[in-house]
Amino acid sequence: AMTLSPLVEALKPSATLAAAAKARELKNKGVKVLDFTLGEPDFNTPEHIQAAAIEAMKAGKTHYTPSGGIAELKEAVCRAYKRDYNLDYAPNQVLISNGAKHSIHNVLATLCGPGDEVIIPTPYWVSYGALVELTGAVPVLVETTEASGFVMTAEQFEAAITPRTKLLLLNNPSNPTGAAYTPAQLEALAKVAVARNIPVLSDEIYEKLIYPGSEFRSFASFSPEIKALTIIVSGVSKAYAMTGWRIGWTIGPAAIIKAMDNLQSQETSNPCSISQYAAVTALDGPQESVEAMRVVFERRREYSLSRLRPWQERFGVTCPPPGGAFYMFFNISSMLNKPLAGGKVAKDASEFCTILLEEAHVALVTGDAFGAPGFVRLSFATDDETLKQGFDAIEKFLASAE
Ligand code: PLP
């Protein structure tokens, strides 16, 4: 009989994609939905990167490539990390995969198995827990709070380590909270990792989206010892508005990269050849578009904060300012267990999001999906007009509960 594997049977669908699907369902009924569920830049991929893809296609770069990616792209990744972070890596320390999500899966599948523990600070990106569980390992969730700016301290990290700890999975800047660790906070974590010999998977996909008052440092950059323990995952999706091209990378010890390449060669073969050539141009070409997009996100972040600020006094809704990425993660627990618009009552953030969608036609993602009950996530990677209409609609919705 066709029975499912227990590991797959236990999988939940990605909650962010599920929230987007719910919004789409309503849109298909002809309702105008203000959708803030998506975690991707609303910009098109910059022209010069598109042109590089067309050129690659015309030049016949339409065949299989080496399973772990073309040498040109691995070299371009090495050049970029030298240029941007003064980090020295060799091409045999780089693996190209089908997006950073695939990179994370490959790292976990290569390193983890039953009996292992992976430390994950919460709130955490939805896929982390699922991808860890797929390997048979166990996620060990370390709770961070709004008051601490959603940052895990070195003490918390140390306290979570057991003889079974295989890995720390760190996301900086963070999806969903936008938390950006300070260099001092990172260095304190790095010291614990070195002292206790714990490898760190550092998901740095939002590295280029940093706002005033915050500073990005790659986790590998604090000492040769931490560099040897760090596996960096990043990619072109967020910085270059290339989510659909599916190019991510892993940088780390050559032996691990080689094992991951073996896995990938059996699993998917190479990532898309054309996308790889486009990614070479993204990394080697002019970087102005990265900053131009960041500036737009910075403006939307300012706007979002200006709309959220009065809600603290008015509704008890609070939001720590995000240091990076493009999400506002706000605390709506003051709105639970009391009549909202339409007389409906939400007992948790998931129900709050459902009622908000039904009554105000605004789609947010529930914090429950990220291990953060009482919170909701709004992506400000949307055009200015939609953002304004969205805040107007949420404000009206909140006010109707007063
Ligand atoms: N890591 C985090 C924290 C993300 O938010 C995302 C995308 O939403 C990814 C990784 C995956 O990026 P990619 O589209 O390159 O697979």
UniProtKB/TrEMBL annotation:
User: Which CDD domains does this entry report, sorted A to Z?
Assistant: AAT_like
Which PROSITE patterns would you find in this protein's record?
AA_TRANSFER_CLASS_1 (PS00105)
Taxonomy, superkingdom? Bacteria
Keyword annotations of the record: Aminotransferase, Pyridoxal phosphate, Transferase
Q: Can you name this protein? A: Aminotransferase
Needed cofactors, names only, are: pyridoxal 5'-phosphate
Any one GO molecular-function label of the UniProt entry: transaminase activity
- Which enzyme class? transferase
Keyword Heme present in the record's keywords: the answer is no
What is the E.C. number? Answer: 2.6.1.-
A Gene Ontology annotation in the biological process aspect, one of them, is:
amino acid metabolic process
Q: Which Gene3D superfamilies match?
A: Aspartate Aminotransferase, domain 1, Type I PLP-dependent aspartate aminotransferase-like (Major domain)
> Is this entry keyworded Nucleotide-binding?
no
Q: Outline the extent of the Aminotransferase class I/classII large domain.
A: 32-394
Native species = Planctopirus ephydatiae
